[in-house]
Structures are given as structure tokens and as C-alpha cells.
Amino acid sequence: MKNLISLGLGVLAFISFTPFLSYGANEDKVIKVVADNWCPYNCKPLDEKRGYIIDVLQKIYEPKGYVIKYDLVPWTRSIRGTRNGQYDVIVGAYKTDVPDFIFPKKTIGLSQNVMARRIGSDWTYQGISSLRDQYIAFVDGYSFGETLDRYFESTTHNIMRLHGADALGRALSMINGATLHGVLDDENVLKYKIKKLDLNGEIILTNAIGGNKDVYVAFSPQKHGNKILVKIFDEGLARLRQTGALDEILIRYELKDWQTGHLE
To answer: How distant, in Å, are the alpha carbons of 125, 205, 211, 246 from that of 259?
Structure first.
């Protein structure tokens, strides 16, 4: 009986993943999308909610006959692999992350950095000088704007560069320790992760750190066909916004349209 059950499960698994196994039949129609976990922008591939950017990409490209193959890859590896043509697209990127990539005209979000800190902390960001006595963590490879990036490049004694799977979750769990003062990241990402880890009663978010940054899907510079994909993206996103389909996606993540600022 156990063998029969195992066989049945194996068949179901094969059926479930058949689309992924059939990519070789039409490789030109497969778009390989990667990023690290930056929920709600992009989440785990097998989650019911895979992230609003992934939902948007599916809505844009699948009616055109493309297949979105989405995987989680550590951020620095995502950049390196997309830069050399192993992947087609990274999602949740700033232009300062990958200035050599191909960017659409239209953004896919608006990011504001804040810091997660122990509840009861009264620290606020007041420029670079206010960071000098703070031991903070952030995911390696992220850009936080020219001023902050230059500061982080010039100092090593009070920063922790995070690597590997669920680096953000591991860092947040360290905030209540005696050493780490805070974790720097996007406000939407931190809110989502803090809620998921049930840390709302232990962690608060600071005021804005730096200005808003446009978020993009960024296409590999190694693949000339990506210029066509960029054009499809710009036209598709405009159509989703016009028809209300974009709002329907964002509502699932309790987010507003970053361009119009409304949530219906």
C-alpha cells in the first residue's frame, strides 16, 4: 500500500511539474526570472502568493505564449547569473544595483528604506552621522542609494553583510540580542517579514532612511531578444493598470499602486 501511495504521489508530482520539464520544447518562450526572497515583491515560488511582481509578469507574458520560470537565488548570484546570461530577468532591482542591465520605461514599484529595531528604541535617522555608532545588518549586494552605498563601502566595523537563504529572517531574530542595533531594508519587506515571524510586539520601524527608489524588473544585457521582452512589459503593465487588473493583484498583498497611490 505504501509503495502504491508513493507511486501515486510521484505521478502527481510529475503532472504538477510537467510544465517545467517541457521547457526544452520551446526554450525561446521561457523567461527565467530570479531574485532572493523579497516578499511581498517576490516570495517563495511554491507559495500561493508568489509576490505581486511575479503575478504581474505572469499576467503580462503568459497570454503572449511565454512561460515564467521563477526561482529564488541569493541576490549577488542573481545579479551575476543574469549579467552573464544564465537567467533572463531579476526582479525588485534598483538601477543602481545593476546599471548595465536593460530596463523598461515603467517601474514595478516604489521602495522606501527604513530600519527595524528593538521596540522601545527612540533612535531616528538623521543623516550618515547618526549611523556611526550603530551596528546594523543588511543583505549583501543591495543598493541603498549613492550616499549610503558610499558610506557602507568605507566602513566595516559596524556593519554586517548578510548572505544565504532567509538572511533577512535570521538578522531580524538577532535584533533582540545585545549587539545588533537594527536591520536595514525596504519598508514593505520588513513589515511583511515582521508580521510573518510574529515579531510585531518586539520590533518597530524607524523613520525613512534616504529617499524613495524606483523598483524595476531588470533584463540581462547578454540577450538581445530581451529588448522585445522589455517592450512587451511596458505595454502589458500599462494595459493592466488601465483595466484595473493591476489593482486586483495588489489588493491580494494589501498594497497600493505605487504610481497612482490608491487601493480600491
So the answer is: 26, 24, 16, 11
Look over the chain and give the mean of its residue pLDDT values, rounded to a whole number. Answer: 87
Answer whether 25-109+216-251 and 113-205 agree in fold.
yes
Domain at 113-205: CATH code = 3.40.190.10
More confident residue, 50 or 179: 50
Q: Which CATH number fits domain 25-109+216-251: 3.40.190.10, 3.30.450.20, 3.40.50.880, 3.40.50.720?
A: 3.40.190.10
Block residue for cell numbers 545585545: 178
Q: Residue 45 pLDDT > 90, yes or no?
A: yes
Listed by start position, the domains of the chain span: 25-109+216-251, 113-205
* Whole-number Å distance between alpha carbons of 165 and 170: 9
Q: What is the pTM of this model?
A: 0.82
Q: How far apart are CA 131 and CA 242, in angstroms?
A: 43
pLDDT value of residue 162: 87
Note whether 82 and 165 are within 8 A (CB): no
